Amino acid sequence: MTLAPLDFSPLAWVLLGLAAALVGISKTALPGINTISIAIFAALLPAKASTGALLLLLIVGDVFALISYRREADWRALVRLVPFAAIGLALGAAFLAFAEDNWVRRLIGTILLCLIAVTLWQRFRGRGSAPASSRAAVAGRAGFGALGGFTTMVANAGGPVMSMYFLSARLPVKTFLGTAAWFFAVINLVKLPISIGLGLFTPATLQLDLLLIPCVVVGAFIGRWIAARIRQQAFEWAVIAGTALGALYLLLR
Hints:
By secondary structure, the protein is mostly helical. It has one domain (8-252). The chain has helices spanning 10-28, 34-44, 47-69, 75-98, 102-125, 134-155, 158-168, 173-197, 203-227, 232-252. α2 (34-44) packs parallel to α10, α3 runs antiparallel to α8 and α5 runs parallel beside α7 (158-168). The longest helix has 25 residues, at 173-197. The radius of gyration is 17 Å and the shape is globular. It starts with 9 loop residues before the first helix and ends with a helix. The model is unreliable at 127-131 (pLDDT under 50). Keywords: Cell membrane, Membrane, Transmembrane, Transmembrane helix, Transport.
């Protein structure tokens, strides 16, 4: 199966446009819902072309996220996460070069469901419990950072993983979005030359992305409108729902 953008049916173009718009919304308002985009791209494009095409659209979305929330990031959290994410990226690149990814997608989906369960348990347990020890906090950063780097390299699915980490930190909406914006902007730019080396991009991929970029832009502005109006609790539950959707997609794909 080869990628030929001009051969897509009208319905396929509608779905791809929707997927691109959801990338923009996920970057500026609702992290996690871009798992719908991953599913649509995977259904309509060959595996490698799907990963490459979506990465370029994610980078466009990163630009709008940074424009919107560049001053809102928790820099302390970012500095602590990046080294572990780099380790995860390296492992993901090695995996893409040598292994099949179906069973790993299912493993990632299972891990995400476990993370959701832990997050919900912590919320319903109440506020009276003791804070995590510094050693546990470091272990959590290492685990989330490495898993986030690995999943974003293998399946562009790092958003749900990192959303759970930022959610557990109880970040306000804009701080959450700003921290995620800088994290994925750096990670996706690092992924770009690795992905080129793995042969994930073709002229047809670039042609498709040029046609879909306007949809990402529209989605980013819709997301900014949503983020300015959404309440903290609604935002947090939307993140959990998006993460659950991503986990189920990875399990069932």
